[in-house]
Amino acid sequence: MQDFKVNSKQLPKNFPREFDAHIYFSIEHRNDAEKLRNKMREHFSTKIFFVGDLIPIPVGPHPMPMFEANFPTEIFAEVVIWLMQNRGSLTVLVHPLTGDDYVDHTDAVMWLGNSLDLNISKL
Question: What is the layout of strands, in order, in the sheet containing 110-112?
């Protein structure tokens, strides 16, 4: 089986990974997620921004398939507003990366769309 934690390993060296956005999708909406991912990569291509691969199974605390975007604080508002306007029916979790995974995924989250129950025991 493929190691689906590879996203972070693909980050460029010294990437300022200060925020994550997890974009969730059901199998039925995989094409929507792929289109959003491609649109996101194109839109933010001139920024310090990283978009990971589609992960087709739940991993870690994430209860659904998803893909992840990593970005620095400087473009936080731009990314969140763009996601608000472009996510369609997909659910998005945005959180800081402080080093405290529990707090980052519970107290410090922002949901766009319906919130999901994360599997906190996996943090």
Answer: 50-51, 66-71, 19-24, 91-96, 110-112
Task: Give the start-to-end residue ranges of the domains of the chain.
Answer: 28-90+116-122
What percentage of the chain carries pLDDT values higher than 70? 88
Q: Pick from 85, 81, 79, 119: which is nearest to 102 by CA? A: 119
SS3 of 8-36: the string is HHCCCCCCCCCEEEEEECCHHHHHHHHHH
pTM above 0.90, yes or no: no
**pLDDT tens-digit readout, 61-92:** 999 999 999 999 999 999 999 999 999 999 99
Return the higher-pLDDT residue of 6 and 95: 95
Contacts of 5 (CB under 8 A, 6+ apart): 59, 60
28-90+116-122: CATH topology is Alpha-Beta Plaits (3.30.70)
Helices 76-86, 30-43: crossing angle, 10 deg rounding: 140
